[in-house]
C-alpha cells in the first residue's frame, strides 16, 4: 500500500523547485542579454555589459588615483589598460557602486541611481512609447543606444550625440542650424577627474565650415581653417584612416563630419587632451602597454592659450616639462599640476610690499623688476598713452599696487594687472619682447648680490693681471691652463647641450685640420678629439653668407633636434666669416663604403641591412613629422648615412638645407645635387615638399637591397651606364624579386617577407607623382610590418626610359580619380599615402 507524502515534504519540494526555476530563469536572462539593459536587467557593482565582439564595455569604473569616485562609462574591451571613451555622470560620481544602479526607469529613460536611490543622471527623453519595451544596447562601435526593444530602428537617445573627450568612428561632430546646438568634445579636468575641463573642440557656431579649439568657452586658441572639399586648410596632414574615410555633410538643418574606421589590427582613438589642449590621435601598443602619440593639432603645446596658467611660462625648447613658473613664483597646487591641471598656475613666493613712491623710509624695501627678454608678452595689457619712456612706465607700474609687470617698446607703455596669462619663452623671434616682472625686494637681492660678486671678481682679476703682466711666461702658463680647463668643461658640456667653440679651440682639437675624413657639398670634414671625450668630426662650411645672429639661431634650432638615427650636433663656431659645425664621430664611416666595397670585411648581412633601412627611415620621419618645423634634408644618399660601432645608422647633414637658406638651397639642388637621387620635381622646378626626401630614400633603399649604385658603369661591350631602378623594376615585374638582391647575400640568410616589403615600398617611394609617394612615417610602419602595402606601379619615367613591358596583373596604375579607380580596379594615391593598407583592407 503506497504512502502519501507528508505536507512538509511537499512544501520543501515545491520551494526547491521554485528556487531552481528562478536561478535558471535569471541565468538564461543574463546569458541572452550580455549587451543589453532592459526593464528586468540593470547594472550594479562590478556587473558590465559588452558589445557583440567585445570591442567596448559599459559599467562602473574608477580612474586610478581618483579617491574612490565611480562613474558609469564605456571603455575599450580589448585594451589591457582601462581607457574610457565616454562617461555618463562626469560631474556627479558615486562612492558605492554596489548600492548604485543603472536601470530603465518607469518612464522608459535610462537613469543612474546613487546609494540613496536618487537620480543623478538620466537620458532625459520625453517621447518614449513604453518603458516595458525600452532597452539600452551597447554597439561594437562604442555607441550606447536607448531604443525600442522590438524595433531597433526606433532610437530615442544615443551616446554618440553626447560625446565627452573622445571622437569615435561613426559619431557626428557638428552643429545643428535649427536648435543651435553642437556635438563637441570637452577635455577631462585632469588625469583622474572626467568632469568637464577648460578645453573644448567644436564646429564654428557662426556657420563657417571649420572646427574651433576654445579655452574656457571664451577664447579661440586655434582653428582648423575652412574646409576646401578635401581637407581643412590648417590641417593638411591628417592621418589617412581619419581623412580618407571622412563623410562631410552640409544639410539645411545641420552640418557635421563623421568618419568610419576600416578593418585594421591597430586600435586608435582621437581624444581632446586634458594636459595640452591638443586633439591627439593615439595608437595602442600592446608590447609597451601604452598609447603612442602619432598626430596632434595644434602642433605646438604653447599655441594653446594659457596652457600653463597665471604666471606660468610655456617653452617649446625643453624635452620634459613645457610649463614652468616664472622667477619669484611657485606652483600653486602641486597635486593638480602633477595631474595635468595647471589652470591655477603659480603664486608668489614673497608678497609685494607695495611701498609705492610715497614711502621713503630707510627701512622700507621697495619692490623691483626682473627683466625677462625674448618672451611672448601676456594678453590683455593696459596701454598708458601718456608715458613716453621706460623709466616713466616703470614708475607708473610701481605706483599701482595691482600692477604685476610692464613693457616698453619705444612706441608705448604697457602694464598688466593681477595674473599674467599666455607667457612663452621665445628666441630671436620677431614678435618677442622684453617683460619687466614685478617682484618683492627680497627676491631681487640674490641677483644683486651676484652682480656685486661679479664686480668684485672683475676687480680682483684686473689686479692679478696687473701683477702678472711683468712676467709674460707666467701669464702664458696661466692662460694655457685656463684654455685646457675650458676645453675640458666644454667637452663635458657637449653631453647635455649645444656648445659654442672658438676657431682656435677647433684648430687645437683637429690638430690644425690635419686629418681629412672627406668632402661634401657644403665643405670638408676633419677628424678631431676633445679632452677626456670621444672623437669628433668638424665640418668647415664654405660659401655661407649668413649673418652671425641668423646662423646662431638656425644652429640652435638644429642643435635641439636629437634622435637615435640622426647624427648629433655637439657644437658650432661662428667667428667672423668662419662657420664650423661639430658632430659626433661615427667609427664605421658612411654606408656607401660598405655597400659598394668588395672587401669581405665590409660585407653587410641582410639583418643588418634591414635594420639600417628602418633606422634611416625613422630618422627622416622624425625630421619631417616630429620636429617643431618640418626639415627637408634635400640630399639623402649613402654618403650621408653614417654608421656607428654597432652599425646603427645615423643621417648626417640633416640641418644643412635649412642652414643654407632658401636661395642657396635652390642653387644647390638644381646645379650641384647628387645625380641619381633627385626627385623629378627638382628638375621641373615645382615647389618642393618633404616627398623629395622620400624619393631619395627609395633610391637608397634599392641600393641597400642590391648592393649596387642606381647609376652604375657597364662593361666596355655595353658602352655606357645602366640605370639600376629600371633593371629592378623589370625583375619585379617578371616575378623575380630575388634577382634584385645583392649577389653577396646567400638566399638562406634573407627574410623574403622583409625583402618583399622593402622592394614594394622602395618602388612606391620613387613614383614620379609626389602624391603617390608615402610619408616617411608610413614607410617606417611598412618596414616594421605594422601595415601592409599594395604592389606598386612602375613609375612612368622608368617605362619611358626602358624596355620594361606595361604590367597587367602584378602592378596597377596610380590614379587620382576615384571613379576611374572603381572602373579599372586601380589604387587611388594621395598625399598621405593611401596606397598602404592593413593586412585585410585598404586604410
Per CATH, the architecture of the largest domain is Orthogonal Bundle
> Can you tell me the number of structural domains?
5
Shape, per Cα inertia axes: globular
CATH class of the largest domain: Mainly Alpha
Report the CATH topology name of the largest domain.
Transferase(Phosphotransferase), domain 1
Assign a percent range to the helix content.
25-40%
GO molecular function: ATP binding; carbohydrate binding; protein serine/threonine kinase activity
Domain Apple: 354-440
EC number: 2.7.11.1
Organism: Zingiber officinale
Description:
GO terms for molecular function: ATP binding; carbohydrate binding; protein serine/threonine kinase activity. Residues 822-843 are annotated as: Disordered. There is one protein chain. 26% of the residues lie in helices and 24% in strands. The protein is of the alpha+beta class and 843 residues long. It has 5 domains: 32-162, Agglutinin, subunit A (Orthogonal Prism), CATH 2.90.10; 163-305, Agglutinin, subunit A; 368-442, Hepatocyte Growth Factor (3-Layer(bba) Sandwich), CATH 3.50.4; 471-585, Phosphorylase Kinase, domain 1 (2-Layer Sandwich), CATH 3.30.200; 589-711 and 720-837, Transferase(Phosphotransferase) domain 1 (Transferase(Phosphotransferase), domain 1, Orthogonal Bundle), CATH 1.10.510. The longest helix is centred in the middle third of the chain and has 28 residues, at 441-468. The radius of gyration is 34 Å and the shape is globular. It starts with 6 loop residues before the first helix and ends in a 6-residue tail after the last strand.
Amino acid at each position: 500500500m503506497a504512502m502519501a507524502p507528508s505536507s512538509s515534504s511537499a512544501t520543501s519540494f515545491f520551494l526547491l523547485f521554485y528556487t531552481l526555476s528562478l536561478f535558471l530563469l535569471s541565468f538564461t536572462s543574463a546569458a541572452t542579454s550580455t549587451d543589453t539593459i532592459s526593464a528586468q536587467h540593470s547594472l550594479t557593482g562590478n556587473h558590465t555589459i559588452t558589445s557583440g565582439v567585445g570591442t567596448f564595455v559599459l559599467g562602473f569604473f574608477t580612474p586610478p588615483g581618483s579617491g574612490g569616485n565611480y562613474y558609469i562609462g564605456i571603455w575599450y574591451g580589448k585594451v589591457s589598460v582601462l581607457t574610457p571613451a565616454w562617461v555618463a555622470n562626469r560631474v556627479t560620481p558615486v562612492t558605492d557602486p554596489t548600492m548604485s544602479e543603472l536601470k530603465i526607469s518607469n518612464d522608459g529613460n535610462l537613469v543612474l541611481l546613487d546609494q540613496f536611490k536618487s537620480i543623478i543622471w538620466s537620458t532625459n527623453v520625453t517621447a518614449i512609447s513604453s518603458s516595458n519595451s525600452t532597452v539600452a544596447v551597447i554597439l561594437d562601435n562604442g555607441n550606447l543606444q536607448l531604443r525600442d526593444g522590438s524595433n531597433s530602428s526606433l532610437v530615442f537617445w544615443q551616446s554618440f550625440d553626447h560625446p565627452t573627450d573622445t571622437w569615435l568612428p561613426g559619431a557626428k561632430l557638428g552643429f545643428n542650424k535649427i536648435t543651435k546646438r553642437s556635438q563637441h568634445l570637452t577635455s577631462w579636468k585632469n588625469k583622474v577627474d572626467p568632469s568637464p575641463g577648460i578645453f573644448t573642440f567644436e564646429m564654428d557656431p557662426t556657420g563657417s565650415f571649420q572646427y574651433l579649439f576654445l579655452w574656457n568657452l571664451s577664447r579661440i586658441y586655434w582653428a582648423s581653417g575652412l574646409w576646401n572639399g578635401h581637407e581643412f586648410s590648417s590641417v593638411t596632414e591628417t592621418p589617412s584612416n581619419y581623412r580618407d574615410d571622412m563623410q562631410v555633410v552640409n544639410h539645411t538643418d545641420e552640418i557635421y563630419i563623421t568618419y568610419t574606421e576600416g578593418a585594421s589590427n591597430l586600435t586608435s582613438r582621437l581624444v581632446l587632451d586634458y594636459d595640452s589642449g591638443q586633439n591627439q590621435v593615439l595608437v595602442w601598443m600592446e608590447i609597451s602597454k601604452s598609447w603612442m602619440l602619432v598626430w596632434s593639432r595644434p602642433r605646438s603645446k604653447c599655441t594653446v592659450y594659457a596652457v600653463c596658467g597665471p604666471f606660468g611660462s610655456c617653452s617649446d625648447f625643453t624635452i620634459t616639462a613645457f610649463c614652468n613658473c616664472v622667477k619669484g613664483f611657485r606652483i600653486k597646487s602641486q597635486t593638480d599640476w602633477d595631474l595635468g591641471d595647471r589652470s591655477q598656475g603659480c603664486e608668489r613666493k614673497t608678497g609685494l610690499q607695495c611701498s609705492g613712491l610715497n614711502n621713503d623710509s630707510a627701512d622700507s624695501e621697495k619692490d623691483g623688476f626682473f627683466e625677462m627678454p625674448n618672451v611672448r608678452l601676456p594678453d590683455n595689457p593696459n596701454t598708458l598713452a601718456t608715458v613716453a619712456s621706460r623709466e616713466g612706465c616703470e614708475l607708473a607700474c610701481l605706483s599701482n599696487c595691482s600692477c604685476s609687470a610692464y613693457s616698453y617698446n619705444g612706441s608705448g607703455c604697457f602694464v598688466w594687472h593681477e595674473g599674467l596669462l599666455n607667457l612663452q619663452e621665445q628666441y630671436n623671434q620677431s614678435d618677442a619682447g622684453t617683460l619687466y616682472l614685478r617682484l618683492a625686494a627680497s627676491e631681487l637681492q640674490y641677483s644683486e648680490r651676484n652682480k656685486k660678486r661679479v664686480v668684485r671678481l672683475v676687480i680682483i682679476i684686473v689686479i692679478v693681471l696687473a701683477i702678472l703682466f711683468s712676467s709674460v711666461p707666467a701669464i702664458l702658463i696661466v692662460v694655457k691652463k685656463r684654455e685646457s680647463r675650458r676645453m675640458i668643461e666644454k667637452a663635458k658640456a657637449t653631453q647635455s647641450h649645444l656648445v659654442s667653440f672658438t676657431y682656435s679651440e677647433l684648430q687645437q682639437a683637429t690638430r690644425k685640420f690635419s686629418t681629412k675624413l672627406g668632402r661634401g657639398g657644403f665643405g670638408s670634414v676633419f677628424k678631431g678629439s676633445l679632452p677626456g671625450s670621444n672623437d669628433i668630426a668638424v665640418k668647415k662650411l664654405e660659401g655661407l653668407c649668413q649673418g652671425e645672429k641668423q646662423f646662431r639661431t638656425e644652429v640652435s634650432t638644429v642643435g635641439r633636434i636629437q634622435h637615435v638615427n640622426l647624427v648629433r650636433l655637439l657644437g658650432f663656431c661662428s667667428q667672423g666669416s668662419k662657420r664650423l659645425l661639430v658632430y659626433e664621430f661615427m667609427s664605421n664611416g658612411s654606408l656607401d663604403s660598405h655597400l659598394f666595397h668588395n672587401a669581405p670585411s665590409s660585407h653587410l648581412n641582410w639583418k643588418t641591412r634591414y635594420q639600417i633601412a628602418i633606422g634611416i627611415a625613422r630618422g627622416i620621419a622624425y625630421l619631417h613629422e616630429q620636429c617643431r618645423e618640418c626639415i627637408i634634408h634635400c640630399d639623402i644618399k649613402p654618403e650621408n648615412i653614417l654608421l656607428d660601432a654597432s652599425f646603427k645608422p645615423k643621417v648626417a647633414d640633416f640641418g644643412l638645407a635649412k642652414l643654407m637658406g632658401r636661395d642657396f638651397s635652390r642653387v644647390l639642388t638644381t646645379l650641384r645635387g647628387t645625380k641619381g637621387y633627385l626627385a623629378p620635381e627638382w628638375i621641373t622646378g615645382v615647389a618642393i615638399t618633404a616627398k623629395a626626401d622620400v624619393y631619395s630614400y627609395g633610391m637608397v633603399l634599392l641600393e641597400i637591397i642590391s648592393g649596387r649604385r642606381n647609376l652604375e658603369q657597364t662593361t666596355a661591350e655595353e658602352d655606357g651606364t645602366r640605370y639600376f631602378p629600371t633593371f629592378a623594376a623589370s625583375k619585379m615585374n617578371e616575378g623575380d624579386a630575388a634577382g634584385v638582391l645583392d649577389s653577396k647575400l646567400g638566399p638562406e640568410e634573407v627574410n623574403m617577407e622583409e625583402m618583399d616589403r622593402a622592394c614594394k615600398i622602395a618602388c612606391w617611394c620613387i613614383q614620379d607623382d609626389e602624391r603617390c609617394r608615402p610619408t616617411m612615417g608610413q614607410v617606417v610602419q611598412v618596414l616594421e610590418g605594422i601595415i601592409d602595402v599594395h604592389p606598386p606601379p612602375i613609375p612612368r619615367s622608368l617605362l619611358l626610359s626602358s624596355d620594361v613591358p606595361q604590367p597587367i596583373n602584378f602592378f596597377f596604375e596610380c590614379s587620382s580619380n576615384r571613379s576611374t579607380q572603381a572602373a579599372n580596379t586601380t589604387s587611388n594615391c594621395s598625399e598621405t599615402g593611401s596606397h598602404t593598407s592593413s593586412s585585410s583592407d585598404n586604410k
